[in-house]
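Hi U.,

Before I forget, here's the chain from the pilot set. I'm dumping it here mostly so it's searchable later in email.
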Amino acid sequence: MSVSTAVVPVFSSEMYLVGVALAQPELSWWVLGPAAAVGQLVGKTVHYLAARGVLRLPRLLRRYRNRPDGETLRRLQAACTRHRLSGATTVFASGLVGLPPFTLVAPAAGLLKAPLTVWAPAATAGRLIRFCLLAALPGLLHLGTLPFGWSLR
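Structure:
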């Protein structure tokens, strides 16, 4: 489900994840979170690669029609090359808290030719933390099963 909602964002994978965690409390957050994060990353990598020009998406899935002009794109690419840590930090923050929206950051990173070796680890860390916290949220709110097997009883 995470892969499909990442490629075609019809509804929130976060809401789906919390729903699954609520409906099936026997599934652990440390299984649900990473599974959802991997699915999201697979789907968003499709957008990254398409924006980079490596993949050609069907017309229905092409959402990023307004590309910057050549000079603007060259300046942005140069800035990303000079400030790789800033780019990785932006990708991480977007993956973790959703600001700027990750659905825009993934193709922007591809469009700006951000190296996959910079984009992927930052995106993975952000998405993994986000989805693990979301998967643990129902247990935390019910004060039943806490992360790491802790208990309040």
